[in-house]
Amino acid sequence: MYPYAWQETTADNGHRIAFCGAVGNCAFFVQPTRVLTCERIIKLTINLTTYGLTNYFEDLAQATPELTLARIISQHRDLYQVVSEQGQQLAQVSGKLNYQLTDPTSYPAVGDWVLMTATSTTDQAVIDQVLPRQSLLARSAAGTGRQGQAIAANLTTIFICMALNGDFNVRRLERYLTMAWDSGATPVVVLTKVDLCPVLDAKMALLADSTMGVDVISCSAKTGAGFDAVNAYLLPGKTVAFIGSSGVGKSTLINHLLGTEALLTKTIREDDAKGRHATTARQLIVLPQGGLVIDTPGMRELQLLSGNFDQSFADVTALAKNCKFRDCQHQGEPGCAVQAAIATGELSADRLASYQKLQQELAYQGLTARERENAKIERLFGGKSAMKQVVKQVRQKNKRR
Ligand SMILES: Nc1nc2c(ncn2[C@@H]2O[C@H](COP(=O)(O)OP(=O)(O)OP(=O)(O)O)[C@@H](O)[C@H]2O)c(=O)[nH]1
Ligand SMILES: [Zn+2]
């Protein structure tokens, strides 16, 4: 049971009643400070707005009243923990849905609203439908043979965290922004550890082009600066996520939002001791102020699966519209407006290189390992026979030595 899920009200007999959203169907008669006895167990209804339910999903669910609306709050492989009005329970995708879902990113993810066949909360439920998502953060699942993997669904805001010390890297930020814009959620850049940065203005200037149109917050866990600005996004019913490299301070921020340092870290330690069971790992966290945070293990380091360059590289894509050739690669073709902008200093060469690198990375996505290897050979040598030629020449050169 998690303290954040406790709700209290006054019973007819004047006793305080406390109930726990995480359990859902237990009620204890308590005095203001301590539990006296569990006099009876009653069926409670969970208010799903606490879990971010909006009219959009409510309306979608009403079209199929025979199924139960639920939100995925954690996932362990094919097993999901869901919350419905009846409480929490485990669920699995139905055989029919499993057959229908051909794209791996269509499988339910934490944050998804699903429709399931109603069962007692002590039984495992069956997920029949994943409701259309308002946003989806997906990553490439390299080496798994899968094209991608859904990480978190229905996020309103994605906080891209980058520390202002050694972690600071504009090119990496551009990668995260490209991915975040593509998800359908709105990215917000959070620059952490501002207490360790004596040159904030200079660092902000380096980010200016890449963060055009994006809110940027600088914060410090040491001084508390900037935390209120992050908090302002956590309105009731909004679901957010924090992404960024390891050690930038994501957990520190989430702990702060939870309002208690111990809560998150303690839970993680408890889970570790038990071997991290799916039922205990909290991945969708209800904050006291009403917002929700999704923090899944897969969220921490993300590989690009798809990108939206029109927003993350709006300057480059706007310039490219004026290139003479529609398929201009901006690599020295005549009439290239992008190269012209670099020549005048309007665009930095580093930013174009970052754009091209991300585009190349994406072009590889969806290819098999062999296709990817061939694409690389094509790019580096202009084809297999040309590569063989180069290899032959190198061998001969080495022999002569
Ligand atoms: N100086 C300073 N240190 C910070 C700040 N925020 C976090 N830290 C420290 O940075 C370290 C890493 O912070 P975490 O919150 O665990 O980082 P994380 O991003 O959650 O890391 P992962 O869990 O590995 O993804 C801890 O020792 C924090 O105390 C900050 O604003 N200033
Ligand atoms: Zn061009």
UniProtKB/TrEMBL annotation:
<keyword id="KW-0963">Cytoplasm</keyword>
<feature type="binding site">
    <location>
        <begin position="192"/>
        <end position="195"/>
    </location>
    <ligand>
        <name>GTP</name>
    </ligand>
</feature>
<keyword id="KW-0862">Zinc</keyword>
<dbReference type="Pfam" id="PF03193">
    <property type="entry name" value="RsgA_GTPase"/>
</dbReference>
<keyword id="KW-0547">Nucleotide-binding</keyword>
<keyword id="KW-0342">GTP-binding</keyword>
<feature type="binding site">
    <location>
        <position position="336"/>
    </location>
    <ligand>
        <name>Zn(2+)</name>
    </ligand>
</feature>
<dbReference type="GO" id="GO:0003924">
    <property type="term" value="F:GTPase activity"/>
</dbReference>
<dbReference type="InterPro" id="IPR010914">
    <property type="entry name" value="RsgA_GTPase_dom"/>
</dbReference>
<keyword id="KW-0690">Ribosome biogenesis</keyword>
<feature type="binding site">
    <location>
        <position position="323"/>
    </location>
    <ligand>
        <name>Zn(2+)</name>
    </ligand>
</feature>
<dbReference type="GO" id="GO:0046872">
    <property type="term" value="F:metal ion binding"/>
</dbReference>
<comment type="similarity">
    <text>Belongs to the TRAFAC class YlqF/YawG GTPase family. RsgA subfamily.</text>
</comment>
<dbReference type="GO" id="GO:0042274">
    <property type="term" value="P:ribosomal small subunit biogenesis"/>
</dbReference>
<dbReference type="InterPro" id="IPR027417">
    <property type="entry name" value="P-loop_NTPase"/>
</dbReference>
<comment type="function">
    <text>One of several proteins that assist in the late maturation steps of the functional core of the 30S ribosomal subunit. Helps release RbfA from mature subunits. May play a role in the assembly of ribosomal proteins into the subunit. Circularly permuted GTPase that catalyzes slow GTP hydrolysis, GTPase activity is stimulated by the 30S ribosomal subunit.</text>
</comment>
<keyword id="KW-0479">Metal-binding</keyword>
<dbReference type="InterPro" id="IPR030378">
    <property type="entry name" value="G_CP_dom"/>
</dbReference>
<feature type="binding site">
    <location>
        <position position="328"/>
    </location>
    <ligand>
        <name>Zn(2+)</name>
    </ligand>
</feature>
<feature type="domain" description="CP-type G">
    <location>
        <begin position="145"/>
        <end position="302"/>
    </location>
</feature>
<dbReference type="GO" id="GO:0005525">
    <property type="term" value="F:GTP binding"/>
</dbReference>
<keyword id="KW-0378">Hydrolase</keyword>
<comment type="subunit">
    <text>Monomer. Associates with 30S ribosomal subunit, binds 16S rRNA.</text>
</comment>
<keyword id="KW-0699">rRNA-binding</keyword>
<keyword id="KW-0694">RNA-binding</keyword>
<feature type="binding site">
    <location>
        <position position="330"/>
    </location>
    <ligand>
        <name>Zn(2+)</name>
    </ligand>
</feature>
<feature type="binding site">
    <location>
        <begin position="244"/>
        <end position="252"/>
    </location>
    <ligand>
        <name>GTP</name>
    </ligand>
</feature>
<dbReference type="GO" id="GO:0019843">
    <property type="term" value="F:rRNA binding"/>
</dbReference>
<protein>
    <recommendedName>
        <fullName>Small ribosomal subunit biogenesis GTPase RsgA</fullName>
        <ecNumber>3.6.1.-</ecNumber>
    </recommendedName>
</protein>
<dbReference type="GO" id="GO:0005737">
    <property type="term" value="C:cytoplasm"/>
</dbReference>
<feature type="domain" description="EngC GTPase">
    <location>
        <begin position="153"/>
        <end position="300"/>
    </location>
</feature>
<dbReference type="InterPro" id="IPR004881">
    <property type="entry name" value="Ribosome_biogen_GTPase_RsgA"/>
</dbReference>
